[in-house]
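Input record (Table S2, row 470):
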Amino acid sequence: MSDTEAVSDEDQVQERLRAIPAVDVVLSHPQVARLLAGTPRPLATAAVRALLEGLRRRIRAGEDADVSLPAVAAAAAAAVTAQGRRSLRRAINATGIILHTGLGRAVLAAPAVAALAEVAGSHSLLEIEVESGRRGSRLEHVRGLLRLLAGAPSAAVANNNAAAVLLALNTLAAGKEVVVSRGQLVEIGGSFRMPDIIRASGCRMVEVGTTNKTRLADYEAAITPETALLLQVHPSNFRVVGFTEEVALPELVALGRARSLPVMVDLGSGAFFDVARVGLPPEPTVPAVVASGADIVTFSGDKLLGGPQAGLLLGSEAAIRRVTRNPLMRVLRCDKLILAALEATLRLYFDPEAALRAIPTLRALTRRPDAVRALAQRVVEGVSRPGVRLAVVETASQVGGGSLPTEELPSAAVQVEVEGLPAEDVARALRRGDPPVFGRIHRDLLLLDMRTVAEEEVAEVCAALARARW
Ligand SMILES: *Cc1c(COP(=O)(O)O)cnc(C)c1O
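Output record (pyridoxal-5'-phosphate complex):
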């Protein structure tokens, strides 16, 4: 390349950079200006600045970019509209993953939503005793319900199950040793790794057994005067198959009793509903684990329970009293919105059949394949758009949220094909809609698994397919 050519390339770049319209010019373009009523000006300005910066970057990188005012104004209008919408808003889950952490895990039952809204918009009885007018405990709203539902002597609630585990470990074993099987040192995703949580709780972890086999004798041999707790972690998001052995909870509890050591169980996705009823392999239910005599059992509120994000702790009066007196309880406590939603969710469980109908997580779990197929059929019949081919296909959904990892539920999906467009692009267009629709790509085809789509959302899925801008 000659010097003159290089210079003229650089000149051209400078010229194209200068052609980019100024922020104020873009903001006062009619197509953008009319949107400023719906978007706060600082957000709109920031969106336009980011857009122009992107154009500059592309031009400097030698890429093609249309910097004419009409083109920039159209792109700015889209960016400003997007800024005008709340970022955290509803979405349609057509992934087939019932407890999808990215999509907010459990959807609350209507009575839980109503309770949350009532308490959010008024003063409430959060920490006050009606009779005496004195300050009470926020845990009383759920403690009695949990006692009855789970058969536990006492209960407490923290911000999530990770917090519940941290709180229980710190209360019962800070500065001491916690004995746990090597086969249960799980990573749950995000930043939850059992060894890290044990360390963060101020405890020393003592691993026993091997990845695939741990025997009672391994626990026995590990107990020293420094031991404060025997910990069992439910392997909720993986399975070890083949040559395996773990110690059953009743045996571990018997050992704990014999050595005067408390036994703690992190159940992960604690369920009151017996998943064997929908053909899934049996999982221990919360009441069954409590009945086996563990001193403290922890589980999530927003996994199979189908409630709000929370960490439930069930256990003996003595153990729970120590937990609630731990200063960390104040740090990790739930707010009133969560407690209102949790109380309303728990109340539903007194009528198990009604709970199946009212709690969306259980409804999705127990929905029969023919009912799912009927929803998929409605979508296929409800959309007719040139270049778009829809078909009902058999598929399999997952429970998700680290629950029942190897199990699949027979399901049905709408297979979406758009002429000349890769599945990734089709999926992105649906995600960009309002409300965003999230599907799943399987073998280069986009599937909208209807197991996780509510009846009321079917029309919106149809509208999304009819209007998406590919
Ligand atoms: C999911 C899970 C956790 C973490 O629960 P969160 O409510 O997400 O904090 C901890 N332990 C186990 C075994 C889990 O499955």
